[in-house]
Amino acid sequence: MRRLWAFTVAVALALGACFSPGPVTTTPTGSAVVVAPATEFDAAKAKAHVDYLADPARGGRYSGSAGYRDAATYVADRFREIGLEPLGDNGTFFQHFTMPIVDLTEMSTLTGAGGKTYRPRVDFTESVGGRSGSGKAEAEIAAVGGAARSGGLNDFAGANARGKIALVTGPAAPNGGSSVENAYQEGAIGVLIVGGATLRYSYIPRLQSETVPTLVISQEVADQLLAPAGRTVSTAQDLVRARRANPNAPASGFDVPTTVRMTVSLTPVHDVDAINVVGLLRSPDSNNTQRAVLVGGHLDGVGTDPDGSVFQAANDNASGPAVTIEVARALAASRSSLSHSIVFAAFAGEEEGYFGSEAYIAQTAVAPGRVESLVAVLNLDVIGCCTDTLLVSNEAPDLQRRVRDTAARLGVQSDGTGSGGSDQQSFARRRVPAVFIGAADFILHVYADKPAVVEASWLKKAGDVVTAVAKDLASAP
Q1: Burial of 309 (0-12, 13-18, 19+ CB in 10 A)
Q2: Distance separating alpha carbons of residues 305 and 106, to the nearest angstrom
Q3: Is 166 helix (H, G, I), strand (E, B) or coil?
Q4: With contact defined as beta carbons under 8 Å apart, do 50 and 28 qualify?
């Protein structure tokens, strides 16, 4: 989920086994023969899809990669066996588009006092996008709150960040802007931000002409780096709060006699051929078939680290397309009762900024399918674990209420949440009723996001809700 790029922390930059498809035969040309669809959501099949898509052989499904293409082919094959119509390019299920991307060329590094070497994805992780890019920095530390630099508030007062590495302690400040941009404007040559250090945040392939290396470090590491100044993250934040509350309080920034070395090594931003997978369950109602409900979720993950460690991306987001496939299979059995058609989609490029859903909107010109024909969008993301409660976003309150009411009727707990964070945003900004549906507690962007964390029993609950909502929407007059 792209919301990981926002760090989901208070001091944010301002989120197997191969599947056997069962009794499907093929023609001599290799095309699948359609089999009779199931009549209800099949959680065992959904779990098998997760196992295949999140297998290390898929390489973390980075958009444009061979592993992603393998995953896209798999989803297309499942759409074909269910009997969906291809809604991609030239009579295929594949909708190709070009998107920018950037990746690591080698693991990032961080070295502290006395040559202490810290561990990537344990002690620190890199941030990429905007002002944060490639680079090397070796300098002493300037400890700053970071987010506030205007309106009478200055988290940098008391420290000299020029030519140094800014260690941003937080806490976040309302309307304070980007702490990385603030540090750059103060002359910092590198930035350390206290936050979640085990994640691989989404790499946003939109970079300023001048960038500084930026790492997110754990509070434990930050406390070690601040120790020579006799401070901790907690005491530094107390200084920041006091200064923000009272401009006459002592300056909150301070210099630390600790030399740090850091590196972030990236490829240049370059274009790749990315692929959405799109299928159509066409309504037999000639009066309403041109209108459609869209059910889908992003297929891409954050890939593989240069050391070979794979982010298998089972929950985020093999679970979304896996549920989508089995919702399609269940609803294909009810096609005769549908007033509206249903589009099923697996998007690329969500992690980098909704590129796949934006490409779908730009390139889908036929109805049903084009954005003007959509009556609702159900975007499935991080829907595979680790709770018994569904989370439903609020971009479309009536649709949110419909999903939550359906969940209650089926005995599934649900909670509401705010907007943003995934592909539903692309549709919501075009005034299409669209919501995110996921799990209220989840795991994502870590090595541990493997198929074992996704449980068939939970897929069943979530899948039943999505199937019922999609059928209800598509059966309405």
Answers
A1: middle
A2: 8
A3: strand
A4: no
Q: Rg of the Cα trace of the chain?
A: 24
Model pLDDT, residue 153: 75
pLDDT over threshold 80, residue 32: no
Residue by residue, DSSP assigns 370-427 as SGGGEEEEEEE-S-SSS-SEEEEE-SSHHHHHHHHHHHHHTT-EEEEE-S-SSTHHHH
What span, in angstroms and rounded, lies between the C-alpha atoms of 179 and 188?
Answer: 11
Helices (H), 57-149: 66-82
> Cβ–Cβ contacts within 10 Å for residue 87, how many?
27
pLDDT, one tens digit per residue, over 308-363 is 999 999 999 999 999 999 999 999 999 999 999 999 999 999 999 999 999 999 99
Q: Where on the phi/psi map is residue 259: left (φ > 0), alpha (ψ -120 to 50), or beta? A: beta
- pTM of the predicted model as reported, rounded to 2 decimal places: 0.91
Domain ranges of the chain: 2-102+269-475, 104-266
Tokens of 208: 């300023």
131 contacts 208 by C-beta, under 8 angstroms:
yes
The span from the CA of 357 to the CA of 379, in Å, is 10
Token output for 440:
């209220």
Assign 176 a pLDDT band (cuts: 50, 70, 90): low
104-266: which CATH number, 2.40.50.100, 3.50.30.30, 3.40.5.50, 3.40.50.300? Answer: 3.50.30.30
Among 148, 157, 127, 132, smallest CA distance to 8 is for: 127
Whole-angstrom distance, CA of residue 36 vs CA of residue 29: 21
The CATH architecture of the domain made up of 2-102+269-475 is 3-Layer(aba) Sandwich (3.40)
Among residues 55, 88, 80, the alpha carbon closest in space to that of 366 is found at: 88
Report in angstroms the alpha-carbon separations of 326 from 33, 344, 359, 467.
17, 10, 24, 9
Half-sphere exposure of 418 (CA within 13 A, CB side): 3
Q: Compute the distance between CA of residue 438 and CA of residue 420 in angstroms, rounded to an integer.
A: 13
pLDDT at 39: 67
Rounded Cα–Cα distance for residues 425 and 419 (Å) = 8
For the stretch 437-468, what's the b/e string if a residue is b when 16 or more beta carbons lie within 10 angstroms of its beta carbon? Answer: bbbbebbbbbeebbbebbebebbbbbbbbbbb
Using the structure block, give the residue that is written with the tokens 């989901």: 8
Question: What phi and psi values does residue 189 have, to the nearest 5 degrees?
Answer: -105, 0
